[in-house]
Design brief:
Layout lengths: L10 H17 L5 H10 L6
């Protein structure tokens, strides 16, 4: 657990999950103000 490893087969799954969560936060910005601000400051690019 100390060493982070990247597994090629997990990258597309992680990217899809990240995009999904970003879309949710952007769509529900009034309900999820904290999450919306997090995505706005840390991941400013809109998902594809």
């Amino acid at each position: 657990m100390r060493d982070r490893q990247t597994f090629a087969e997990q990258v597309p799954v992680k990217d899809a999950f990240r995009d999904h969560m970003q879309c949710l936060a952007l769509e529900r910005k009034t309900d999820w103000a904290f999450e919306y601000e997090f995505w706005r400051h840390h991941c400013p690019a809109e998902p594809a």
